[in-house]
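Side project, low priority. Logging it here so it doesn't get lost.
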Amino acid sequence: MLRLDERLRAILELAPPCRCFADIGCDHGRLGAQMLLSQRAQRVWFTDISAPSIAKARRLIGQLGLSDRAVFRVGDGARALGEAPEAAAIAGMGAATIADILRAGADRLGGARLILQPNLDESELREFLQRAGYAIQRERVVRAAGRWYVLLLVCRGEMRLSEAERIAGTA
């Protein structure tokens, strides 16, 4: 098992077991690697806009002997995916960036269950999700490296958030 911080461990716990998982904005690839190691996913798509990040992820997956179950793509968000995953994580970026990824990649994400972790502007992301036809199934707050993080498990659906829920969350 890889060593994951509290944030990545919480994302892993929210991710449902699936055939195909997408780690969008994968950076070092630790989350996707643990999805494979723990048998929570049969295959993982690692995507990132940064070629050096994909190289780091590819190196890690190679060292773990998991390359036959991984696909690596340099590209912009979900548009880099070659197939629709059953679940995907989009973590470690601002709410506006996550919303842009969801908007641009809606056809590639299909009905995937999504684990979203915005680094800022959580209320704006909740508002976008409500308008865009997503429903928050679960919300969790974790602390890692001295900082608080909000994690959202969402899927396609309707929701009506109160002003307080939009600002402070549904947890």
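Brief comment: The chain is about 35% helix and 30% strand.
Revisit when time allows.
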